[in-house]
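Q&A log
Question type: sequence-to-structure
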Amino acid sequence: MNETKNSNKEPQPAHIIYTPFTGVGLHGGFRGEQWLEHRIKIFKNYTLKSLMNQSNQDFLHWISFRREEKNNEQIIRLASYLTNCNYPYIFTFDGLMYWDDKFTDYRLKTQLRNCLMMLWDCWHYKDIRCSSKELQFKIKQIWKYTWENKNKTLLDRTKRSLNHIDSIIGHGFDWIYLTRIDSDDMFHKETVNLIQSEKPQYNKALVFDKGYIYNIQTGQLGEWHPPTNPPFHTIIFPGSTFFNPQSYLEYYKNFRTHEDITRIFNCTTLDMHKYMVSFHGRHISTAWESSVLRREYHKLKYRGYCYTTSGRNISTHWQSRTTKQKNFMIGKEFVGEIKDNILKDFGITIDLYKEEKL
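Response status: OK
Response body:
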């Protein structure tokens, strides 16, 4: 499998953009070949285009998968596609490279919660509509993953991946900027420039506040107002720390989720509206509309933040007919030329968002 190499090994800061593609969360971090095909399409049309649209291309894109995907034909084709695009990427196959919060405080309570969530996913995404043999296999897989604790193997997996990155780009860097972006989200064309304009310091992280959300299914664009730190942080590592697996994990301290960043690191909040989350219907967490149960859960999780039932700031066509309404994190909607210009800054062309109905 072809990968790009960085020939410049002079001591300097290096910027790595990290995307965990598979190996995240429940279901063993993999939700089937159809899900993977869908996610790759989203990645190529949106995430990748936003990164190729950056005014500053001085970065390496680290994309991680489970070991099971190493010989997956879809991943091999993706690697070939990125190589043909002359895109600066590297693949690793050791799963998620930091703590998986679905396995925090791994006790019977957590195991039961995970099992119920996986069963709910099968029902919600209609995965139960299959033959009895396939259904039995899915149930066996859910039972297997109920007892899985991926964090137990994190150190060994991290060691293999960091050694591989070292073999590709070398370790002669004073600092490593590690920026996280999911495989279905986007950055504004000036985001990389903005991140690299910040001076490196020990225990420093860069975070964002408000952004955008784009509904790929309908072409709608709105403001995104998360009540907690969104998953687009940059952690600045000393170079020697980053390439030492034990030091790399210790540098995270008690990091368990992107919501912890502002508590653990000395954070600088960057300009607003430099990231965009997408909604495409096959998410682990992001929702465009929320059911009654989800709204009640969010009221407890986010406390002071709640949903309105008055219809204020909720577009009628963003609501369902009965039990659902627009996610309370979605704010002002953009239309017309303003919307077109915003999407262009994220690498989304007018033709693409008019044609794509995923």
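Response note: Residues 33-52 form the longest helix (20 residues).
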